[in-house]
Amino acid sequence: MSEKALSILLRPLGAGRLHHAILLYGADISALESLAKDVASRIFGRPCQKHPDLFELRPEGKMRLIKIGSESEKIGGDWPPNTMRRLLKEIGQSSSLGGAKVAIIYEADRMNVQAANAFLKTLEEPPPETTIFMLTTRPNELLDTIRSRCISLRVDSPPAPITDEKWLEWLDDFKQWQKLIMGGIGRSVSATDALMRCYGLLAKFDEVLTRLADEEAELDEGSADELDDEMLEAIRSGKRRALRKHMLSDIEDTVAACALGGDGVPAVKLARAVGALEKSSALMELNMPDTPALEFFMLSSLRIWTR
User: Fold this and answer.
1) To the nearest 10°, the Cα dihedral for 156, 104, 46, 14?
2) Backbone φ and ψ of 261, nearest 5°
3) Is 16 helix (H, G, I), strand (E, B) or coil?
4) CA–CA distance from 100 to each of 45, 97, 134, 299 (Å)?
5) Per-block mean pLDDT, blocks of 10 residues, the chain (307 long)
6) Positive or negative, the Cα torsion across 74, 75, 79, 81?
7) 3-state class of 44 per DSSP?
8) Which residues, 6+ apart, have CB-to-CB distance to 47 below 8 Å?
9) 112 to each of 10, 83, 107, 253, 300, how far by Cα in Å?
10) Partners of residue 105 on adjacent β-strands
């Protein structure tokens, strides 16, 4: 978590002037969550976990969207959980403990149009004693009208390195594959061997990502019991997305290190390889399954480095 960002928020909090809508953005969604929950705990004067006046909203479903909630989905006359209408109703009511309320909206750029428009009305007329945190790694994807009604704070907090043994082994295997294809198909490695290694790496990548994401999304038994299946899946998806982004960054660093360490490697080839990886990342953001999206980068690499 960024100590600088925390100190910036604590000054107005201590003076009783903390803005009602705060947009936290940066490269690491986990750091944004940590900062929001730290400030929420200080607002409540106690740890915010399981606090009855802490409300959270996450993207869910195949398209990973924050939905508004429809009449047909109502349960017992109430809006469905983990929807914008449910959140707005909860923060519009009186505090359970007679004090402040805090809402945290994860990946706020994932609001659909209806949810964004409904949320905008609340920003224009915020409930009393309510602080809303919006967390995003893509602030420019939010409506201008939403951003203009918030205090925006960039959180520069590089994620801790992934030290998992299997992931480090994967990176080492990838590095060896990268060096082989840079040497040229038919010279350093046969086409068959290069492809076999490629698909072996793809299978292991998904295995490592799935295991690490499940470990990060693990909740204590009490917390898990309080959440429905859709909310649990939303948490898992968010953790997987953040971890995947970190892993792709490690791959990019490895590609650059291999290229810069080679003899006479054209800069244009490195730029194309990085561009292919960025396109793979964009495909993942558009909900293409991870393995086919990464396969695009791997096969593109075969073409780029062997021409």
Assistant:
1) 60
2) -90, -5
3) coil
4) 10, 8, 17, 53
5) 85 93 91 94 94 94 85 83 93 92 95 92 91 94 92 85 94 92 79 92 95 78 60 80 90 86 69 92 89 95 83
6) negative
7) helix
8) 41
9) 32, 11, 12, 34, 33
10) 57, 134
Six token digits for residue 301: 């690499």
Please give the Cα distance from 109 to 121 (Å, whole number): 17
Pairwise CA distance, residues 161 & 105, whole Å: 26
Domains of the chain as residue ranges with CATH: 3-154 (3.40.50.300), 165-306 (no CATH)
Query: Are 49 and 65 contacting, i.e. CB atoms less than 8 angstroms apart?
Result: no
CA distance 241 to 207: 15
Bin 107: left if φ > 0, else alpha if -120 < ψ < 50, else beta: left
What pTM does this model have? 0.72
Please, what is the end-to-end C-alpha distance for the chain in angstroms? Answer: 44
- Return phi, psi of residue 279, to 5°: -65, -40
